[in-house]
């Protein structure tokens, strides 16, 4: 997985704010045209997208600061805090939507200009589809939790927006105005679920979650194929901190091997791992052969 540079990541985060503002404006006009509380809830969620985009921009900027005396392992975990705050904002928006839905349930409202409003909302949803796909792919490719979380949130917005548009079409055709607050309530429940998922994912990162099983298998294979001259590798541990990956293990070598020779093996393994996982931080503890456990990574 490639390591992106700070200017590109910050430009993507800044562009996300601009896109969110454009979508918010379009959805708000759709709400004003129709008076629909469901479209109001959709516009309200877009406000969350704007705030979340600003927080993601801050987090990405901080995460690319170089390591210093107070933060010797860097600032990459800042992106997780962004995702946690975004989850909290989603919960707040859901509660506001439920309040509006309850008011509309008690006092049903007739639609105004439903065709124009729904067309505008559909156009805003198409913008979100394209941008969400881009953000999710970019976030995964460059291991950016903040940008990936922003993309997942926008994709959740796409799902709810589509449901709202389809439901309001039914309501406009049938005259069942009760569908409007019910759809708004469903939007609230859906984004509550998305908020919980964003927070859970971020907390996993803050708790130093290990890399996924497929990536760990590649780490083991890479070590095994590049540790010629060593006896074994054991106590392999991995963790993620934002886009940074940390790989630690013990390398057992013959007791008579010189420091220079063991250092060459370490360099070879480290270079091979960083060719596959760009920017990976590799820590190798060299041990003599009497420390072998015969339970780790075999050397090919």
TrEMBL record:
SUPFAM superfamilies: Cation efflux protein cytoplasmic domain-like (SSF160240), Cation efflux protein transmembrane domain-like (SSF161111). One of its GO terms (cellular component) is plasma membrane. InterPro entries: Cation_efflux, Cation_efflux_CTD, Cation_efflux_CTD_sf, Cation_efflux_TM, Cation_efflux_TMD_sf, CDF_Transporter. Residues 213-289 form the Cation efflux protein cytoplasmic domain. The chain crosses the membrane at residues 12-34, 46-66, 78-98, 118-138, 158-179. One of its GO terms (molecular function) is cadmium ion transmembrane transporter activity. One of its GO terms (biological process) is intracellular zinc ion homeostasis. It is a multi-pass membrane protein. Residues 15-207 form the Cation efflux protein transmembrane domain. It is found in: Cell membrane. Keywords: Cell membrane, Membrane, Transmembrane, Transmembrane helix, Transport. Belongs to the cation diffusion facilitator (CDF) transporter (TC 2.A.4) family. This is Protein p34.
